[in-house]
Predict the 3D structure of the following.
Amino acid sequence: MTLDELAAALEPVPQRGWLIDAVAAARAEPESVGRAFAQADRRLGRSPLPGPAGDAGWTPGRAGRALLLAAVADRPDGADRVAALYQRGDAAERLAVLVALPLLPIADRAVPLLHDALRTNDTRLVGAALGPYAAHLDAATWRQGVIKCVFMGIPLAVVDRLTERADDELATMLAGLTEERAAAGRSMPADAVALLDRLTAAADSTKPSSWEEQ
Amino acid sequence: MRIFDPHIHMTSRTTDDYRAMAGAGVLAVVEPAFWLGQPRTNPGSFADYFDSLIGWEPYRASQFGIRHHATLALNPKEANDPRCRGVLDLLPDYLDKDNVVAVGEIGYDSMTPAEDEAFAAQLALALAFQLPALVHTPHRDKAAGTKRTLDVVAESGIGPGLVAVDHLNEVTVGLVRDSGCWMGFSIYPETKMSPPRMVEILEAYGPERILVNSAADWGHSDPLLTVATAEAMLAAGFSADDVDLVFWRNPVEFYGQSGRLDLSDIAEPPPSFAGSSIARGGS
């Protein structure tokens, strides 16, 4: 989903005029964005958008917030303004920032927001922190995020490029958690078991077999 | 019987209270920001408190199927502390949040010049953010305080229908009724107002424009006194419809003026919330 596609998906929304004015105001006067950002959900709506945008989880409120973020993000202090909207936001506003990050021209400057979201115990924020913008996370933080998903019961499907990034270290951590769970008589989520099986099989196939070692 | 408690400080209550309230028919609450029993020394303490009133408490309430909204303000008592004046500058960042349905509690504690200033400034904020206002009346010198409260409300330009004047009693109810403001009553185990006295007031003044709350907090109070008062109304011969008006439709109408009251069913409570969970044994 791109910003242009979100703007197109918002065309049938009745309060679109309010959003267009708010985006223009945010460009002209970036301080004004805070109020519009807080109001966006109740102005624009919380039901899924029709079409592919809705299928991808976008609501009018969240798409509107993405466009408001874009209106302030391409300034020299854009990343700071995005961070301020996150820090002053309620849970819905913070979630809207996290899902919009990959669409904004701020390179890796919003990584501290992912760190904040990963420290919470809000499953929505933790999951959103592991979307496409998590490409900017270092491997150790990313692995801790994945393990936290398993811990909190967040489906691993939320993790962007999981297969590509999962490595031996993650397999070791998953195996350790599996052992702890087994000791407590608790099971692992099926998607975590499947991931560990895949990683273990891949590791075995690259190991020299016993007769080659002799 | 469905109960909406329009004034209760759940931050000071336990999850057992939430369970008992839900079991007794309390489906919705509004939690006004207030004094925590000891002074706060800087605006940052209020920012964290406000964040909890629009974050953690709604989550906790949702675990029991109770809808939780908040009113935010610098309370009258702490308006007198110069270290807390900066809270007035924080409020505009919070008054646009979805879960905020009024400015409150504002009003008078000791009727000082600092309280005058904070009260007027926050009525202006209510006007600017198109929110109702929840106004506390003082525990001491209540009749004079209520009269002065109504003068300040009239002077502010806010419509009386957007103002609830709370903690009323037999002495102050008439003044508030004549002003056009909503009449709030806090039912306490010993002080303020009891269920039988409340029923007498309802018999004398009728159920229109009346809000009945438990104002339960960290003091001697009881979150189920709304339910007890509703039962006392029925026992005294009020109809189930009268009870529904006082304990549901009136608070819905008053706070609904914010345009932000969301009473749709809670689909499925989120499993946990930032920083901690009330579930034990999990993460």
In short: The CA atoms of residues 4 and 11 of chain B lie 17 Å apart.
